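Review session, final week

We close the course with one last complete record, chosen because it touches almost every idea we covered. It is 3D domain-containing protein, a protein from Candidatus Caccovicinus merdipullorum with 230 residues. Go through it on your own first, then we will talk.
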Amino acid sequence: MKFMKKYLFQIILTAALTLGFRFTAMAAQIHGNVDEIHEDSISGWAWDASNPDVPLTVQVSVTDRSGNLVFQQTAEASIQRDDVSASGYGSGACGFLVPVDWTGLPDGSYTVLVTTADQVIGGTQQYYKGQASLRSLGIFKTTGYCPCQRCSEGWGRSTSTGAIATANHTIAVDPNVIPYGTKVMINGVVYTAEDKGGGVKGNHIDIFYNTHGETQAQGTQYAEVFVVEA
């Protein structure tokens, strides 16, 4: 009887582990990102590698600082995105754009969450309505990287959040110091934390550039970093 109980437990454990692996594998097939949050819309892309020709349905939710849901809408991710296709994500017909009327909401900080198939796309994003303020994080070391093999080790413009890296926008950070989606100002330019790097730890930011020559010109510098917040 003890043998049967032990055998049954092993079967249940094996089944649970197998099921968990399958769910993980399924979730890993979905790629996407929230690219832009404008004063009148939220846009991005979502693509299922396991079913590449079927558009995903995304749900966009916005909550205020107190956690109250102030906006929610679904949309089909089927807009053509040539930049996504060029990065290796299917035909590129996986973009979405959801109109949002921010004018009826009071000034302040809002959290934007995009989900599809019970998976969050691009992490949580912050939108600041009204006059934003700057909060200093102190002095950081800043370096540069680009899509070349030497800098990105074959990842090109792909990032750890699913965003497609763009110059004057994307930075790699230590997420324990600067969470993904945070907007920071460095030397007057506002960037978004969308990536991380093996050598980026603590007070260190890696700025994305289009060419390796630009990364060399950047070199290693030190600058005061400000969080852009409401």
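Two points worth writing down before the exam:
The chain has two domains: 30-129, 133-229.
Confidence is low (pLDDT under 50) at residues 1-27.
Good luck, everyone.
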